[in-house]
Design brief:
233 residues
Length: 233
């Protein structure tokens, strides 16, 4: 999306990215179903903890060569995802904050140093988040990593998608101030439903619905603001 030459191709990149994610999700779902069928047909009792089922299958059921390739693939995927995340976080923070807000006159060398230091900062931050998540799963075995990770996305992705749909589906709704207010409103609605659901004074929603609720709230609030005449396309 960031490399697209105009807004239309950027929007097309976002849509295609979402469509390309569907086969990946199907692969993840298929792995779980196939493991269930394999254990049922072979009379194997899987570990009680769900997080241990796939590692147990790798260690006890796969041949030595395949086992090594799979572990190497998992490590390579983790390293590739981590390097991509660090690069994106550091580059975006440098361009959108360090240069645009704090140091507009920064040269190429100064920007490179900023990217390097921000890479270190975000690496430490990710280590802290990972260690905290691991500690939480150890202290409470019922907690699973996937709901935690996707649940965190649910707080912010709804606001992003709501503003995106506002720009795609409307011509005279939404503005800079209105979009900020709408995104904060979508975030607040998700927080309110989460707290209310836990306390029992609002309906509890599962974490996959957070994006939907945040999107609808953001889009509805954004529609209350009219686009300035000089910003209309």
């Amino acid at each position: 999306m960031l490399a697209a030459p105009d807004s239309k191709k950027g929007a097309r990149a976002v849509i295609l990215s979402g469509l390309m994610d569907m086969p990946i999700v199907l692969v993840f779902i298929s792995c779980g179903m196939l493991l269930f069928v394999y254990f049922a047909q072979n009379g194997i009792t899987p570990p009680e903890k769900q997080i241990e089922i796939f590692p147990w299958f790798i260690i006890h059921c796969l041949p030595a060569g395949v086992r090594g390739l799979l572990v190497a693939a998992l490590l390579a995927t983790a390293m590739g995802s981590l390097s991509t995340a660090l690069n994106a976080l550091a580059t975006t923070a440098t361009r959108d904050w360090y240069v645009d807000v704090f140091r507009p006159q920064a040269g190429q060398g100064e920007q490179l140093r900023a990217v390097r230091w921000l890479t270190v900062f975000f690496a430490v931050l990710l280590i802290v988040v990972g260690a905290g998540t691991a500690w939480l799963t150890v202290m409470d075995p019922t907690v699973r990593i996937l709901p935690i990770a996707l649940g965190i996305f649910g707080y912010t992705y709804g606001s992003l998608l709501g503003v995106f749909l506002l720009g795609m589906l409307t011509r005279n709704r939404g503005c800079d101030t209105g979009n900020v207010v709408a995104m904060l409103a979508g975030f607040a609605v998700v927080i309110l439903l989460e707290i209310g659901g836990r306390q029992g004074w609002l309906p509890a929603i599962a974490f996959p619905w957070r994006v939907t609720v945040g999107t609808l709230a953001t889009f509805a609030v954004g529609c209350l603001f009219r686009t300035p005449i000089d910003k209309k396309v």
